[in-house]
Amino acid sequence: MTSLRIEHHPVLNFPERKIINFFFEDKQYQGFEGEPIAAALHAAGIRTLRRSPQKDRARGFFCAIGRCSSCIMEVDGQINIMTCITPLAEGMQVRMQKGHGVIKP
Ligand code: FES
């Protein structure tokens, strides 16, 4: 897996984690099961998670604790999912949310 992850650290140990597949804008990526969706995207080099509703500005990771809504995306057809606190699961379909998103029936 090519990524921007820290894999070796002089003080911390990282436990073995299961690698799973997920999709961002229909392209397949890999991440660790249970890690935040936004973390998996960040590790894959994806920094823009959504576009702001009024000025169409790029938004990405900001607070990373579920408080600012900067990371909201469409996940498995549901809009406004805070991807910094939502665990990654096998086969997830993740899309960039433009503006307020569109509620699908
Ligand atoms: S980055 Fe702030 S809610 Fe996700």
Care to describe what's here?
There is one protein chain. This protein is mostly beta strands. The chain has one domain (about 20-95): 2Fe-2S iron-sulphur cluster binding domain, sarcosine oxidase, alpha subunit, N-terminal domain (Ubiquitin-like (UB roll)), CATH 3.10.20.440. The chain is built from 1 helix and 8 strands. The strands form 2 sheets. A 5-stranded mixed beta sheet has the order 2-1-7-5-6, covered by helices on one side. The chain binds FE2/S2 (inorganic) cluster (FES). FE2/S2 (inorganic) cluster binds near residues 66, 67, 68 and 69.
Number of helices: 1
Number of strands: 8
The first-level CATH class is given as Alpha Beta
Poorly predicted regions: none
Distance between the termini: 36 Å
By secondary-structure content and strand pairing, the structural class works out as: mainly beta
Multimerization state: single chain
CATH-level-4 superfamily name: 2Fe-2S iron-sulphur cluster binding domain, sarcosine oxidase, alpha subunit, N-terminal domain
Number of domains: 1
Overall geometric form: globular
Cα Rg: 14 Å
Question: Which terms summarize this structure?
Answer:
Ubiquitin-like (UB roll), mainly beta, five-stranded mixed β-sheet
Summarize, please.
With 105 residues, the protein is mainly β. It is built from one helix and eight strands. It has one domain (19-97): 2Fe-2S iron-sulphur cluster binding domain, sarcosine oxidase, alpha subunit, N-terminal domain (Ubiquitin-like (UB roll), Roll).
